[in-house]
Specification:
It is a single chain. The chain folds into 2 domains: 163 residues, D-Maltodextrin-Binding Protein, domain 2; 97 residues, 3-Layer(aba) Sandwich (D-Maltodextrin-Binding Protein, domain 2). It is 42% helix and 23% strand. It has 12 helices and 9 strands. The radius of gyration is 23 Å and the shape is globular. The N and C termini lie far apart (56 Å).
Length: 269
Amino acid sequence: MIFTSNNGIAKIAVLFLLLFTSNAKSLQLLMGVDPVNDPNVMAKEVAPLVEAMNYKYGLKYVPSSSTQELVQQVKGGNINCAYVSLGYAYLLQKMGFVLILESDEKVKFNLIGKAGLDFERDNKYRSEKVYYVKNDLFMKYMIKEGNDRYSWVANPIPAMTSENIMMKILKEESSLGYIIGDGLQLLHSSLRDNLKVYQSEEIGSVYFLVNKDVLSIGDDIGKDFLSFHDGFKDPAERYNYLRVYHFKKVKNNKLHVNENYADYLENYL
């Protein structure tokens, strides 16, 4: 038989309170995203999600300025969940993250240039300048592949956005550029008609991943985040990132990554 005094009961109550507080703190979600957009812009884009998940998970957006910084933030425990494209999802899985959600929509990349270029994926065309979105892993990989096979890129140049890339190519006769999605549709037809898509490829979904250590504590994370996306409305179209992508539970925790692309990604770990 166990006897407890009032003082003992008080100590037990304090102990439970401390354990509860510690558990609540360990549940805080620190969210990263692909470091391909201005962090100030992304902070505004994900603000509704951060607000909705703040009470239960203390969700906080953690900006990253480069691939290397994001990897170090993950390794240091400063990011424990993330919305990312295929390349970054591959890296996160290698560092102990688990796929939770994936978008119905696929991320697509287009290689564009002035209309009328004699461009082919061989050594008959050499571009002095090829622009790409800064820190986009697949674009950097494609440029490397192009150089390794055909030596067609003389000067890869990072840019902040697809919009910046399109405007630069409009001003230059022989330059090429990788842009995300159907970026040409953002231009007026009088400008759009001067550009052509020379190569297009779907890469994969946008994925939501969580560190497996955090997931073991919060079983409801996937359900809560999916519920947010299912109910999210943006009639004023203020939040492109949250409005464009529609999410579902992942069916398979294994990512399908091209072997050569996977070898390239390993260099960032």
